[in-house]
Amino acid sequence: MKETIHSYDDLLRMLDQLLKEKSEFNWDQFYSDRERKIPFFKDHPDENLMEYMELKKIKAGKALELGCGPGRNAIYLARHGFYVDAVDQSAEGLEWAKERAIEQKVQVNFIQKDIFEMEIEEGTYDLVYDSGCFHHIPPHRRMSYIDLVQRALKPDGAFALTCFVQGGELGGADISDWEVYRRKSMHGGLGFTDEKLKGIFHHFTPVEIRKMRDLNSETEKFGTSALLAALFKNK
Which GO terms describe its biological process (predicted)? Predict the structure, then answer.
């Protein structure tokens, strides 16, 4: 790779590499052992997503899920009338998701790709959903992330995400954006508050921001107060 910056994209790639050099985390390895006691490995959708549907805060249409992993939320949306494009970089995670979709006889369009390399026609989706991807997005990629969501959504479309609570028990580094680059690390994922989310996503209208509800696996929903759940509308 030529280490010369000629463009904004070159700058982004340099910063990507700067953080990547210190990180040894591998998502394929993470998903390869399906028996690990990871709460969101169970095929249970997010409790907030289910509530949005039940209370009609979102309605069936076309959905894009960013960082779908083993597909639990994408499959839930497909079962409830959505046409779903679900994107993830991990081949292991997507293989698991495809197996689940086949078992449950639902159709989901799973895509293996970096979300920042996707070509999306403007105004395609009624819903963009992100469960646990955003807190792994480095600060220098946030503008690209916001542009992606805005481009993807129809007017008045919904954008929802779950992310680490700042200083939460599952993660959520309480450090500034500048400190990420001083340390060359995101410490497993950044933490957020409702005010931080409102500031970052000020291009959207906030509908609701709250902690997820703590739930056990017997409820067949996923929920933990270590994560924030946020719902926005496209302006």
Answer: methylation
